[in-house]
Amino acid sequence: MSLLSSILYDMVYHSAPLILAVLGGLFAHKANVLNIGLEGMMLMGAFSSTLFVFLTGSLWVGILLSVLVTLILGLIFSFFGITMKSNFIITGFGINIFVLALSSFILKYMQMANINVSSIVDVTGLKINIPVIKEIPLLGSLLSGHTVITYLSFILIAVTSIVMYSTKFGVYVRVVGENEEAAKSVGINSTTVKYAAVLIGAALCAFAGANLAVERMALFTNNMTAGRGFIAIAAIYCGQARPLKSSIYAIIFGLAKSLAINLALFAGPISGLFEMVPYLMIVIVLFIVSAVETRHNTIRGFKLE
Amino acid sequence: MKKNDTILKNIFNVVFPVACAFVLGGILIAAIGENPFLTYWVMIQKSLFSVDGLLKTLHFASPLILTGLAIAITFKANIFNMGVEGAAVLGGFFACVVGFTVKGLPTVLHIAVCLLTGIVVGMLFSLIPALLKAYFNVNEMVVTLMMNYVVVEIVKFLSQGVFKDPSSGYVSTYPILDSAMFKKIFNSDLTVFFFIALLVFAVMYVVFKKSKLGYEIKAIGKNPEFSEATGMRVKNKIIIIMLISGAIGGLAGSGFLMSEKYRFTMDFSGSPGLGWDGMLIALLGSHNPVGILIAAIFYAALKTGSEYIGVFTNVPKDIVGVIQGLLILLLSVKFLNERFRFSNKIRFLFKKSSKTDFNK
C-alpha cells in the first residue's frame, strides 16, 4: 500500500514541471513556432531562481526575478526566430547550449559544485497539506502534500484549455498557426501573437524550473532538467497540441519516471537501468502514436508530416 | 559577379556571427572582472602560434571533423539527427570494450577491429530513428534526443558494473590494450586518427559534391515530396543518410577514445559533447565539407586554447561553451538574405548620385 501511494505521489511530483513545460510549449506550437528552447528555458528558470534566491534571500523575489530573466531569454528566441526568421530548431538548440554553458560557467566562477539554498527555503514548509483529504489513504498522497506550483500546474491545464478555445487570443494563436497569410489579411498582427505565444511559454518554463529546483529540493545542480524540455515536446507531439491530451501524456511520462524510481528500489543490481525507462517509453509512445496515424495513410511514397 | 556575391555573402554570414559571439563572450569575461583580450590571446597563442599547440589542435580537430560531417549530411537533407552524440558515445564505449577484451591481435588488426566495432555500433544506433522516420514518420529529433539519454544510462550501467576497473577511484572501464592504441607520431599529439579523419573528409567531399547521393541529399533537403515525385526513393535515402551519419559518428567516438582517452569514463564526450560540437561545426561550415574542415580546426583551437585559460586568468574554461551557444544562436540567422547583393551595394556607394534601385 505504501508503495502504491508513493508511486502516486511521485507521479504528481514528476508530472508538474512537465505539464508546465507542455502548456508553455503548446501556445508556441499552435502558433507554428517549434520551440525547442523549452529545455533551455526550463534550465534557465531552475538556475536563475536558485541563484536569485541565494542572492536575495527571499523565495518569491527570487522566483519573480527568474521569471523576468527567462522572459528575456524568450524575447531573444522570438527576436531571432520570428523577427529575423531564423531556423527555429537551430535557434532553440543555441538557447539550450548557451544556458547549459552559462550556468556551469557561473557555478565554476562562484566556485561551487551546486547552489544549495536549503538554509533559506524550507522545503517541507512549502508543501501544502490539505486537512481532511490528507487522511484518505490513496487520494491523500495523490492530492495532498504538494507545493504551490504543482497545484498551479494542474489548475493551468483547465485555464489553458479555456484560453486556447474560448478567448480571442486563443483563436488568434490558432489562426496564425494554421494560416498566417489569412490572419494577416483580417488584420491580426501575427508577429505580436507569436511573440506572446513564445513569452507565455518562457514564463511557464520559468515556473517549471523553479518548481524543479527551488521548491522541491532547494538545490541547483548542473543540467538538472535532464531532457524534460524535450519530453514536453514529445508530449505535445503525441497529444496533437491539445491541452488536456498533451497533459495526459505528460502525466504518463511522470508515471514512468515515478515507476522507475520506486521500482528501482527492488531491482537490486540492475536498478541503474531503470533510469532509462522514461526516455525509452517516449520513443515507444511516439512510435505507437505515429504508427496508428500512418496506418490509414494511403499516399504512396514519402510524405512530410 | 553573381558567384562572387554569393561567396562574399556566405563569408559575411559566418564571420559576422563569430565576431558578435566573441564580443558578447568578451563582455561576459569583462563582467566577472577579467581581461577579455588577455583571455582570447592566451587561447589563440597556445593553440595556433606554436608547433606543439598546432599539432594538438589538429589532434583534437579529428573527431570534430567527423562529427561535423555526420551532422552536416543529415541537416543538409533536412533531417534533424541529434543522435550523433549518442552514436559517438556508444561507438567509443564499445570500441573500448573490444580494446581491452580482445587480446593477442597485432596492432593494425586490433585498431581496425575496434574502429569497425565503433562504426557498426553507431550504424545500429542510428538505424532505429531512421526506420521510425522512414516508415512511421516519427519525429526523428525527439527520438534521437531521447535515445541519447538512453545511451548515457546504458553506458553508465555497464561501466559501473561489468566493465568497471576496480583499481580506478571513479567510474571508469579498464584501459584499452597497447595494441589498440593509436601511436603518437614523433612525440607530438598527432596520431594516425587525424589522417583517417582526413580520408573520411575526402570521401565525403566527393559524396557531397560529385556523387548522385550528394545531389539527392540536397534535393530531399529542399523538398522531399517533390523528390519522391521525381522518382527518388526518399525512404531508402533517409535510411542510407542516417546510417552514414551514424557510422561517421561511431568512428569519431571510437577514434577519439583510442587516440586520446584510452579508457571510457562518464565525461568521455566532454561538455557539451562531441556531437553538439559537431552541430556547431556543421553550422559554421554551412554544411559544406571544406567549411566544416576549417570550422573544426577553428573550434578545436578554441577548445585546446581553453585548457590554458585557467593557468593565466581566473576565467573558467566553460567560456568556450558559452561562446559555442552564442555562436549557434547567431548562426541560425541569415543576416544577409538571398536577395542582398554585395556588388550592387558597392556600386551604390560609388554612384551615390544615381537613385536607381538595384535590387529590382
Automatic annotation (TrEMBL), chain A:
Pfam family, one: BPD_transp_2
Subcellular location: Cell membrane
GO molecular function: transmembrane transporter activity
Membrane topology, from the record: Multi-pass membrane protein
Record's keyword terms, sorted: Cell membrane, Membrane, Sugar transport, Transmembrane, Transmembrane helix, Transport
Superkingdom as given in the UniProt entry: Bacteria
A single cellular component GO annotation: plasma membrane
InterPro entries: ABC_transp_permease (IPR001851)
Transmembrane intervals: 12-29, 36-54, 60-81, 88-107, 148-165, 195-214, 220-238, 250-270, 276-294
PANTHER family, per the entry: ABC TRANSPORTER PERMEASE PROTEIN, SUGAR ABC TRANSPORTER INTEGRAL MEMBRANE PROTEIN-RELATED
Protein name: Simple sugar transport system permease protein
Organism this protein belongs to: Ruminiclostridium sufflavum DSM 19573
From TrEMBL, chain B:
A GO molecular-function descriptor: transmembrane transporter activity
Signal sequence interval, chain numbering: none
Protein location: Cell membrane
A Pfam family: BPD_transp_2
Chain ranges passing through the membrane: 12-33, 53-75, 82-102, 108-132, 190-208, 238-258, 279-299
GO cellular component terms attached to this protein's record: plasma membrane
Keywords assigned by UniProt, alphabetized: Cell membrane, Membrane, Sugar transport, Transmembrane, Transmembrane helix, Transport
Chief localisation class: membrane
Topology within the bilayer: Multi-pass membrane protein
Record has Transmembrane helix as a keyword: yes
Record PANTHER family: ABC TRANSPORTER, PERMEASE PROTEIN, GUANOSINE ABC TRANSPORTER PERMEASE PROTEIN NUPP
Annotated protein name in UniProt: Simple sugar transport system permease protein
Organism per entry: Ruminiclostridium sufflavum DSM 19573
